[in-house]
Each structure stands twice: as structure tokens, then as C-alpha cells.
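Internal tracking record. Fields below are filled automatically when a chain is submitted to the structure queue. Please do not edit lines marked as system-generated. If the sequence contains nonstandard residues, flag them in the REMARKS field before resubmitting.
Queue: standard
Priority: normal
Entity type: single polypeptide chain
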Amino acid sequence: MKKGLLISIALIFSVAVSAQDVEEFINRQMQTYPKSRLLDIYKSCFQDYLGAEHLVSDRQRVKAYLDEELNCRT
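SYSTEM-GENERATED OUTPUT FOLLOWS
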């Protein structure tokens, strides 16, 4: 199963990046988070590719909040 997940990760990235980039990403992930499991790397790939849109239910509200934060001078 782990081999299948690793292959899936490689296939996801193969469209946009080279195998060397995938290897660098995994090495960087393991250096930053040495206790990462294969599932953690898999999830990180999806989050890097898809972003956090699944956490946003009201895009206009998020935009208004970010606009307010960015325009706030403290």
C-alpha cells in the first residue's frame, strides 16, 4: 500500500514537475518534519497543489477579512 501511495504522489507531481523536484520536496519535508509518515507527505502534496480552499465556506467573507487585514496600518 505504501508503494502505491508513493507512486500516486509521484504521478500527481509528474504533470507539473520533474522527478528530481519530487525527491527534493520529500527530502525537504523530511528535514523539516522528521517524524512525517507517508500519509503526511501525501497530504502535504495535496495541500500544496489544491491549497486550503476546502476550509473556506464563504469566499467573499474571507476576501473581505483579508482586505481589511492588509489595509490595516498598525
